[in-house]
Design brief:
Layout lengths: L1 H25 L11 E6 L2 E13 L1 H4 E2 L3 H10 L6 E11 L4 E4 L14 H7 L9 E3 L5 H4 L3 E2 L2 E2 L5 E3 L2 H7 L2 H6 L5 H16 L10 E4 L2 E5 L8 E7 L2 E5 L7 H4 L6 E2 L5 H18 L2 E3 L8 E7 L2 E6 L7
Parallel strand pairs: 5-6, 6-9, 13-15
Antiparallel strand pairs: 1-2, 2-4, 3-14, 4-5, 7-8, 10-11, 11-12, 12-13, 15-16, 16-17
């Protein structure tokens, strides 16, 4: 009898302790953060690392042009998306074996607290900013150049920065900034605060149009979104990746309807023409595509579908 009572007390104590553990686990605080934002793939002998700078709520209903409100709503609804649309800001690191090349740098501090994670994600991916040799800018909007600076210091102290001179001549001009509408002046200020320190250090070297940069990486003019907008073609052992920059912004809307433009375009007709050409070529030739505002990691392929295109995101790989 005594041993039975002892057993019951022990059993009750055990149940109580287990219940307490369950309750404690249920009350654990929510982490509310993602894993470090990088994704890696091989392209021939090159290693490509997609880097997330974070996401930004984009009011696409107000920004997308050459369409109707009804069509925008339907396109977003088909993809189970809402407006404002949480939009990725991506950059890409190319390790050729000889050079470490960054394509775009994210927003840094220019666009608020939901962006600016690129440097942390670069380090989490196993690289340090001091290792980057070259930085190629698709265009000088703040969400592509803001990450060049870390406070008042060069975020990539050993890198040479390159961009098309048409963008440099436009966005780094105080005369153009003075003549711009008030709501556009921040575009100029962001470009100047990001690029000018590299220029002052002798580390900014613009190019003009189609240019071979390092073996396996070349610039291709795709002007329209900005005066010097550039796409970058990366090739190794017959494998090809084309990094589009801002040739497109909203996958759910612009893949089925490539003619849809955005208010950020400097020349929307030219931007639409470049987008149509890029979409058709990618679908025809089947190479890899990466874009700054496709959902992270923004890598995949394009295929023709109906009167538009369908996006086929990269299948996850552990690279083992």
């Amino acid at each position: 009898m005594r041993s039975q009572r002892l057993f019951l007390r022990l059993f009750a104590a055990t149940v109580a302790s287990l219940f307490a553990v369950v309750v404690a686990h249920a009350a654990a605080p929510m982490a509310k953060v993602q894993a470090p934002g990088y994704y890696r793939m091989m392209l021939g002998d090159f290693e490509v690392t997609a880097l997330s700078d974070g996401t930004l709520g984009l009011p696409v209903g107000k920004l997308l042009t050459n369409t109707t409100p009804e069509k925008k709503k339907k396109a977003l609804a088909r993809a189970d998306l809402t407006d404002p649309l949480e939009t990725s800001v991506n950059a890409y690191l190319i390790n050729t074996g000889d050079k470490l090349v960054m394509i775009d740098t994210g927003a840094g501090v220019l666009f608020g607290p939901t962006l600016g994670t690129l440097l942390a994600n670069l380090k989490a991916s196993g690289y340090q900013p001091e290792q980057v040799d070259e930085i190629y800018i698709t265009h000088m909007h703040g969400d592509h150049v803001g990450g060049l600076m870390s406070g008042d210091k060069l975020a990539f102290p050993n890198a040479v920065v390159r961009a098309d001179k048409h963008d440099a001549d436009y966005w780094l001009s105080t005369a153009n900034m003075d003549a711009a509408p008030k709501d556009a002046k921040d575009f100029f200020l962001g470009a100047m605060s990001s690029i000018n320190p590299y220029a002052a250090a002798g580390k900014f070297k613009p190019f003009n149009g189609n240019t071979d940069l390092v073996p396996g990486v070349k610039a291709i003019a795709s002007r329209g979104h900005t005066p010097g907008h550039t796409t970058y073609v990366v090739e190794s052992k017959g494998n090809k990746l084309v990094l589009w920059g801002d040739l497109m912004h909203v996958a759910a809307v612009q893949f089925p309807s490539p003619a849809v433009t955005i208010k950020f375009d400097t020349d929307s007709k030219s931007a639409a023409k470049e987008r149509a050409k890029a979409f058709a070529d990618a679908a025809k030739n089947g190479y890899w595509v990466g874009a700054a505002h496709l959902p992270f990691p923004g890598l995949g392929h394009l295929r023709t579908e109906s009167s538009g295109y369908a996006w086929l995101p990269a299948n996850y790989s552990s690279l083992r």
